[in-house]
Design goal:
Number of domains: 2
Shape: elongated
Order of helices and strands: EHEEHHHHEEEHHEHEEHEEHHEE
Distance between the termini: 44 Å
CATH class of the largest domain: Alpha Beta
CATH architecture of the largest domain: 2-Layer Sandwich
Length: 357
C-alpha cells in the first residue's frame, strides 16, 4: 500500500489533543490499537479499556462497519461516507460522517484509521456561532442606541433642573421632578441594557462556591415551596473568572428559573467537566458545563430563539434584561449560554473554558 500513512506521522500529541474528530486505529484483525480523547468521549470509554478490543465489542451494528474497514485495508484507498448510524454499547445511537484511511502500523502490518465526526456536533457549532454573532451584533446595536439616547436625555434632565430653579409654585415643581425622575429611570435602563463596563478581574475561582452563594440568595428571596438541589462534580477544577460578574450572571439565570416557577417547584444546579469540547468553532481541552434545570412549564420554540435579546420577556413585570446581561457577562469569559426546553424541563447550560490563558 504505497499510499498508506505511517502511524507515527499521525501521533503528534499536540495534534491529537486538539482534534475534535474521534480517531480510531485498527490493525488488520480489526482490533483497536489507538483511541484519541475525542474518541473516548464518543465511545464513552477510556483508551486503556478499549484498546485491544474488536470492532464488534465497540460498535453493536458492526457488520457493515467491519466490511467497510476490511475493504479499505485491502484496496488501499481513502473512503468517505456521510450520515452513518453507529449503535454503541451504552444504547446510544449517533449519526456520523466517517473517513476510512489505510495506514501502516509500527510493526509494518496494514491497518486502518477511522475518523468519526458527529453530524449533530457540527450543527451545534453552527448554532453556537450564530448565537455568538447575534449577541455581538445586538450588543453593538445597543451601544449605539444608548449613545444616541443618553445625550438628549442628559440635556432634557438639565433643562428640567434649570426650569425648577426658576419657578416658585410647588405644584409646577412636581412636574419638573417627574421629568427628572423619568430621565434618571431611562438612564438606569440604558446602563442595565449595556451591562457592566468594568474590565473583568480574572482570578482563580471555585464555581461551586459561587453557585452556593447564588443558591442562598435565591432561597432567601423565595419561600419553602422552592427547592434548589445540588448535583456538583467534585473533579471540576477552578476556573479563571471574575467572581462578581460570574455571580451576577448565574444569579440572573437562577432568579429567572425561580420566577418562572412562581416560587414553587424544583431547580437543579449541576456541574460537569467536558473534554475536547467546542464553544463555537474553538476547541477546548477542558470545559466547565454548568446547568440550571427547572421543572416549570417550559419555553416555546419561538421565544427560545430570542430569549437572550434585551427587553424580551414573558412576564408583565419583567424588564427582559436578566438573561441578556447574563449572556453578555458569560461571553466576556469566552463562554456561552444555551437553552433547551420542553414542558416540565428547561435547561440553561453555561459553557466556560477551563484552559483560557
Amino acid at each position: 500500500m504505497a499510499g498508506a500513512m505511517q502511524l507515527p506521522e499521525i501521533r503528534s500529541e499536540r495534534l491529537l489533543d486538539n482534534l475534535s474528530t474521534a480517531l480510531l486505529v485498527f490493525d488488520d484483525h480489526l482490533l483497536l490499537q489507538y483511541l484519541n480523547p475525542a474518541g473516548e468521549v464518543l465511545l464513552a470509554t477510556s483508551a486503556g479499556h478499549a484498546c485491544g478490543k474488536s470492532i464488534r465489542e465497540l460498535i453493536k451494528n458492526a457488520d457493515t462497519v467491519t466490511e467497510h474497514l476490511s475493504s479499505t485495508i485491502e484496496s488501499g484507498y481513502v473512503i468517505n461516507q456521510r450520515n452513518c448510524r453507529l449503535e454503541l454499547p451504552d444504547l446510544r445511537s449517533v449519526i456520523v460522517n466517517c473517513t476510512r484511511s489505510p495506514i501502516t502500523l509500527p510493526d509494518q502490518r496494514n491497518g486502518v484509521m477511522l475518523e468519526l465526526r458527529k453530524v449533530d456536533h457540527h450543527l451545534r457549532i453552527e448554532q453556537e456561532e450564530q448565537l455568538i454573532t447575534q449577541q455581538e451584533a445586538t450588543h453593538a446595536l445597543l451601544r449605539g442606541l444608548a449613545h444616541e439616547i443618553k445625550n438628549p436625555l442628559g440635556g432634557l434632565r438639565g433643562a428640567a433642573q434649570l426650569l425648577e430653579r426658576e419657578i416658585t409654585d410647588p405644584a409646577l415643581k412636581e412636574y419638573t421632578q417627574i421629568i427628572i425622575g423619568e430621565a434618571d429611570r431611562l438612564q438606569n435602563l440604558m446602563d442595565r441594557m449595556l451591562g457592566p463596563n468594568d474590565i473583568p478581574r480574572m482570578q482563580s475561582s471555585n464555581i461551586h462556591h459561587i453557585l452556593e452563594r447564588v443558591r442562598d440568595l435565591v432561597r432567601v428571596e423565595g419561600d419553602d415551596r422552592l427547592t434548589i438541589h445540588q448535583d456538583y462534580d467534585p473533579s471540576l477544577p477552578e476556573l479563571q473568572a471574575d467572581p462578581d460578574l460570574m455571580l451576577q450572571a448565574l444569579l440572573n439565570i437562577v432568579r429567572n428559573a425561580a420566577q418562572v416557577l412562581d416560587g414553587a417547584g424544583d431547580i437543579i444546579l449541576r456541574t460537569r467537566v467536558k473534554r475536547q469540547f467546542n464553544i463555537g468553532n474553538r476547541l477546548h481541552r477542558l470545559v466547565a458545563c454548568i446547568q440550571v434545570i427547572d421543572n416549570g412549564p417550559g419555553i416555546d420554540k419561538e421565544m427560545r430563539e430570542k430569549i437572550f435579546y434585551p427587553l424580551i420577556t414573558t412576564r408583565n413585570e419583567g424588564t427582559g434584561l436578566g438573561l441578556s446581561i447574563a449572556q453578555s457577562l458569560i461571553s466576556r469569559h469566552q463562554g456561552l449560554i444555551e437553552c433547551s426546553s420542553k414542558p416540565g424541563e428547561t435547561v440553561f447550560t453555561i459553557l466556560l473554558p477551563l484552559d483560557s490563558k
